[in-house]
Amino acid sequence: MRSIIQFSFAALAAFTDATVIHRRDSGLEVSLASESNTVIKATLKNQGTDALNLLNKGTILDSAAVEKVSVVSASVPVAFEGIRFRVLTSNFSEDAFTTLAAGETKEVTFDVASTHDLTSGGNYKLIAAGAIPFAKAGSTELVGDALAFQSNELSIDVDGAQAATVSRPFSRANKRSDIQSDCTGSRLSATQSALRDCVTLASNAARAATSGSASKFQEYFKTTSSSTRQTVANRLNAVSRECSSSTSGATDYYCSDVYGGCSSNVLAYTLPSQNLVVNCPLYFSDLPHLTSSCHAQDQVTTTIHEFTHAPGVYSPGTQDLGYGYSAASALSANSALNNADTYALYSNAIYVGC
C-alpha cells in the first residue's frame, strides 16, 4: 500500500547489459579488483589528454551507498539494497567532483556487502558500467558530454558468515526514528500536485512510446524495436497508475529525510528494497512544478524518475546509469531502458515538444 507519509509530531536491480556508446575519443577506463572478501577496489584512469572533473554524486566515486556495481549469483541478479537518487545538475560545489589529470588514476574502495545481501556466500560476478558527467578542470559546470564506461567482469568467492558482519545502512532495522514533521502545508500540496500531473505526463509519454515519433524514441532509448517501445510504455503506464492515488499503491512517499540520504544536490531518493521514496528539501526549494525547457528538471519528472526505481511499481526497477541528457544519451539501448533519468527526460520531451 502506498501513502504520502504525514507526521503530526517532531530492491531487484537488473544485471545490466551495459555496453555503451562512447561519445569521446578520449575516455575513461574503469577496472575492478578484489581487496578482501567483499571489499572491492575500483581504479579509474583518464585516458585522454585533458584533465577532467568527474562528478561524484550517484556514481562509482560517491561515498554514499549508491549502486557502484551490478552483482549476479548463478546468473541471477542480487537485489540492490542501497539508495538511488536524482541529482540536481547545476550549482555543484567543488567537493562534488574528483579531478583526474591526463593519464592519472584514482582508486576507490567500497564494500559490496553494504548494499547487497551476500550472506549466502559462494561465487558472485560484478561489473561496473554507466556514464559519468564531468566538468573541465577548475570548473564545476557540467559540459555537454559524458564519459561512458564498462569495467571488467570481476569474479569473487565470498565467505557468507563474514559478509553477514557488514552493516547494510539502509536495512529496515536502521531506519531513523527522529523523523521531523513534514508532508504538510506547502510540501504536501506540492507533492500532491506533482502526483496529479505525473499521471498525465507519464501516460502521454507511454502513448508516445508505442505510437509516437520513432525518431524521438530513438533519441532517448537508442532503438525503435517494438519490444523496447512496449516495455517503456508499460513502465510509464505503471508510473502513471502509481501517481493516481496518494492513499494506495506500491510505494510509501515521504517528505522528510527518513534515511539521511538528502545530501547536497540530491533532489529525491528511492530505496528499491523497501519501495520507499523521499523528496528532499531541494525538491521543494530548487525545482519548479513543471518546466517548459527541454531537458530541464522539475518536480513532476523527478517523481517519474523516482517511481521507475521502485520494483513495486514496475519490476525490475530502473538504475542510475547516467544523470542528465548528455550522460543518458551516452548509454546503449539496453542501458537506456534501465536508466531512470531516461524516462524523466523522455517524459519532459513529450510534454515540452523537444
Automatic annotation (TrEMBL):
The entry's localization annotation reads: Secreted
Instruction: Report residues binding Zn(2+).
Output: H305, H309, D320
Where, by residue number, is the active site? Answer: E306
Question: Which reaction equation describes what this protein catalyses?
Answer: Preferential cleavage of bonds with hydrophobic residues in P1'. Also 3-Asn-|-Gln-4 and 8-Gly-|-Ser-9 bonds in insulin B chain
Keyword match Protease: yes
**UniProt keyword annotations, A-Z:** Cleavage on pair of basic residues, Hydrolase, Metal-binding, Metalloprotease, Protease, Secreted, Signal, Zinc, Zymogen
One Gene Ontology cellular component annotation held by this UniProt entry: extracellular region
**Its principal location?**
secreted
Cofactor descriptive note: Binds 1 zinc ion per subunit.
GO BP term, pick one: proteolysis
Enumerate the GO terms in the molecular function aspect: metal ion binding; metalloendopeptidase activity
Under Pfam families, the record lists: Peptidase_M35 (PF02102)
Necessary cofactors:
Zn(2+)
Q: What is its EC number?
A: 3.4.24.39
Signal peptide location:
1-18
Name all Lysine-specific metallo-endopeptidase domain ranges. 203-348
Similarity annotation: Belongs to the peptidase M35 family.
Quote the function comment for this protein. Secreted metalloproteinase that allows assimilation of proteinaceous substrates. Shows high activities on basic nuclear substrates such as histone and protamine.
Tell me what this protein is called: Neutral protease 2
